[in-house]
Amino acid sequence: MTHPSAPQSAPTPEPAPLHWKLVVDTADPHAQADFWGAALNYVVEDHSSLIERLLSVGAAPPELVVESHGRRAWRDATGVRHPQDPYEEETGVGLGRRLLFQRVPEPKTVKNRLHIDLHTEGGKREAEVARLTGLGATVVREVKEPSGEWVVMADPEGNEFCLH
């Protein structure tokens, strides 16, 4: 029993949830961002104001920049974000659901250890397969198991994802 005059220890505060993004290694970050932005109905991030500011003060060399969608973009990285999630207006960086695509020199060689599952409305899987293949995805295989049915697909660089 605690004595009434004994000091009480303060409750340990719960840690805040971590902010995260899924990073995808890629040969062409801008093509991947365009594909995944269209596939998910996400917004391709606009980092042009940050880039312009860094270029103007000499903090970033011009060779790190390319033109994409009529604006300056980082050559080796870009992202897509959920259109309703917050983002930093100053940098264009999403603060919520976000995929970042970064250029790497080596090609994809093995199956993904992490993949994205996309979920369609009931009865619309075939239409979504057609839409995604129109964007550049390919069908890898159709799965029919007692636990459910889905289509394994690959994005334009061969990264697998599942369409439920």
What's a quick, concise take on this entry?
The protein starts with 21 loop residues before the first strand and ends with a strand. It contains 3 helices and 10 strands; from the N terminus they run E-H-E-H-E-E-E-E-E-H-E-E-E.
How would you describe this protein?
By secondary structure, the protein is α+β, with helices and mostly antiparallel strands. It is 20% helix and 29% strand. Strands 1-6-5-2 form a four-stranded mixed beta sheet, covered by helices on one side. Strands 7-10-9-8 form a four-stranded mixed beta sheet, with helices on one face. A two-stranded antiparallel ribbon has the order 3-4. Strand 3 and strand 4 (71-74) form a beta hairpin. The mean pLDDT is 92. Residues 22-163 form the Glyoxalase-like domain.
Features:
alpha+beta; 4-stranded mixed sheet; 20% helix; Glyoxalase_6; Glyoxalase-like domain-containing protein; Glyas_Bleomycin-R_OHBP_Dase
